[in-house]
Amino acid sequence: MTEPTVDFGPQTRLVAWLAEQVTEEQLGAATPCPDYAVRNLLGHVVGLTVAFRDAARKDFGPTTDTDPGSSMPDVEPDWRGGLPKLLDELAEAWRDPRAWEGMTRAGSVDLPGAVAGAVAMDELVVHGWDLARATGQEYAPDTSSLEAAHSLLAQAAEDPTGGGGLFGPVVPIPPDAPLLDRVIGLSGRDPGWRPA
Fold first, then answer.
1. What is the C-alpha to C-alpha distance for residues 135 and 14, in angstroms, rounded to an integer?
2. For the domain 9-186, what is the CATH superfamily, name and number?
3. Positive or negative CA dihedral for 99, 101, 103, 108?
4. Which of 12, 3, 1, 20 lies closest to 52 in space, CA to CA?
5. Whole-number pLDDT of residue 169
6. Is the pTM of this model over 0.90?
7. Neighbouring residues of 166: CB distance < 8 A, sequence distance ≥ 6
8. What are residue 37's DSSP bridge partners?
9. Contacts of 186 (CB under 8 A, 6+ apart)
């Protein structure tokens, strides 16, 4: 068995901390995701956390078989208590070397375990930035998490069949810009985005 590619712990703890700082008044605020207010973004983070936890465990069912775009996500009343626990479970699930092996499923898509792990980390890094930027918080992911997200997004941007990016057209960023800015640009977002 291979060793886990990256430890999710630092990034899941960071996302949990960012979410903890969100005020009730901020739940309706705009985010860099055009169709999502903060509450929808947090609902999406809850859903992807469960889906990729179960993908790591290869525990297939509604959580792994549902297209994330099939409905508008929103937070449940108990999201503040539930999200940190779910993020801990996600990190723990991806510490098992078996999570990175063979095939799995997330968002109704079958994909290799190693690819699912990379996508899960990218989702946490990019949506962590979305949440921090929307709520005026500082954001400094660990280098390993950033590098994992950058690797996935850079490969997708170079794929001639991918349309220029995994989540939308790439925003050009200077090659000497900070790694976080390059990740955000590759995700189709403007690193300079600020709430209106």
1. 14
2. dinb family like domain (1.20.120.450)
3. positive
4. 12
5. 85
6. yes
7. 122, 152, 153, 156, 157, 186, 187, 188
8. 30
9. 150, 153, 154, 156, 157, 165, 166, 170, 171, 173
Residue 163 is predicted with a pLDDT of 54
SS3 (DSSP) at 84: helix
> What is the spatial distance between Cα 63 and Cα 43, in angstroms, rounded to a whole number?
14
- Please identify which residue in the block is written with the tokens 């309706």: 28
- Mean pLDDT score of the chain, rounded to an integer? 92
Closest CA to 117 of 11, 14, 36, 40: 11
Of the candidates 186, 188, 182, the one whose C-alpha atom is nearest the C-alpha of residue 168 is 188
DSSP element (H, E) containing 76: none
Query: Tell me: the pLDDT tens digits for 65-92?
Result: 998 888 899 999 999 999 999 999 999 9
